[in-house]
Write a structure and sequence with these properties.
The protein is mainly β. It contains one helix and 26 strands. The strands form six sheets. Strands 1, 2, 21, 22, 23, 24, 25 and 26 form an eight-stranded mixed sheet that branches. Strand 4 (68-73) and strand 5 (78-84) form a beta hairpin. The radius of gyration is 19 Å and the shape is globular. 39% of the residues are buried.
Length: 362
């Protein structure tokens, strides 16, 4: 378990998913850590152990309300592990490949009405898993979305999806039908210092996105700047704000093999994990600045603090984690935080029971 291969593999996973994001230079709606009303120390987590579970290069963890945890793996023969918390059993699904029932990489897991939605950005493919009477999951549907090269997708419901538009598209987001057809595109890109020289796109503004359950609202958080955007599917942008770094950036062109890539300057790892509930959303803060030629420890690529906001963008509280987290999710009814965390550089799943009523929550 404590092998150099596992450590290097996890480091590569975390590095690859952090791409360029930015900030609106005319936006002065900033928050700092002092803007939050309270801070909670998250301690005394209970490790979740399964006899037949091996975590190789885990990327995300998602809680299912019927007492399951869904783990995304990278470079594994099967990309999805489903842990049954009631029966202590593990199910592995979705082989790596391009055929039916396969994906090259899983880029997101979302539970809607107890069905599990999976997205492969490389194939522009959605797979939906449903639970059988014996608590096993099977593929209920799979289809390709019309938007190509999207790097993030979130289901708002069974009938509607939102995804980042393809790189080079004039609009930031695409709204899709439940079968993957494009309904409309909307959303303007934030600006940056030299946006008169470089066209903005969703490579620069790569974001994690999540949606308010059963509603029209979703939030996008940039992964390389500290910019937040709250959107309404009907009216568009509701609020754009930034913190806690509050930096402006420019974009430079950097040669890469036979082509080039766009790189923000300064270059940060800011946010990665984003989860949304009925009353609030949580963003996992990293806040690491890249320095050329310097090796970045695995722990520096993980969440150390969770910032909690209401759906107006008001800062509520900071959750300070005992161990750096690769990813996390929350049981909003049971008030249990599930963390895929690093302990002595090994991935561990832990559960933390929070207060019955979180302070400052509605």
């Amino acid at each position: 378990m404590k092998s150099e291969i596992t450590k290097l593999g996890l480091s590569a996973v975390l590095f690859c998913i952090f791409l360029s994001c930015g900030r609106d230079k005319v936006n002065e709606d900033l928050f700092s850590k002092e803007s939050f009303k309270s801070r909670m120390d998250v301690r005394d987590g209970r490790p979740i152990l399964f006899d037949d579970l091996f975590l190789g290069q885990p990327k995300t963890i998602t809680f299912h309300p019927d007492s399951f945890l869904v783990i995304e793996e990278m470079e594994a023969p099967r990309l999805i592990k489903i842990l049954d918390l009631k029966n202590n059993k593990t199910q592995e699904l979705i082989p790596r490949g391009r055929g039916p029932g396969e994906m090259l990489v899983a880029w997101g897991v979302k539970v809607i009405d107890k069905d599990i939605f999976l997205f492969c950005g490389q194939l522009s493919k959605v797979i939906i898993l449903t639970m059988t009477n014996d608590r096993h999951f099977v593929i209920d549907d799979e289809f390709y979305i019309e938007e190509k090269q999207s790097q993030r997708l979130i289901p708002m419901s069974h009938d509607k999806f939102v995804c980042l538009s393809a790189i080079g598209d004039e609009k930031r987001f695409s709204v899709l039908t439940g079968g993957g057809e494009i309904i409309k595109k909307f959303g303007e890109y934030p600006s940056f210092i030299n946006d008169n020289e470089v066209e903005p796109n969703n490579d620069i503004f790569l974001s994690v996105i999540d949606a308010k359950p059963g509603g029209r609202l979703f939030v996008a958080v940039c992964m390389k700047s500290d910019l937040f955007e709250i959107y309404d599917l009907e009216v568009g942008l509701r609020r754009r704000f930034q913190g806690p770094l509050g930096f402006k950036f420019s974009v430079e062109t950097q040669s890469m093999g036979g082509g080039y890539m766009l790189r923000p300057v300064p270059h940060y790892l800011t946010y990665r994990t984003l989860i949304a509930g009925e009353n609030e959303f949580w963003a996992g803060y990293i806040g690491h600045k890249w320095e050329p030629g310097k090796v970045v420890p695995l722990t520096e690529q993980c969440t150390k603090e969770i910032f909690c906001f209401d759906w107006e963008g008001k800062p509520l509280r900071i959750l300070s984690l005992e161990y750096p987290a690769i990813h996390f999710d929350f049981d909003w009814k049971g008030n249990i935080l599930y963390a895929l965390e690093l302990r002595e550089n090994d991935p561990v799943i832990a559960a933390y029971s929070l207060d019955t009523s979180l302070p400052d929550s509605k």
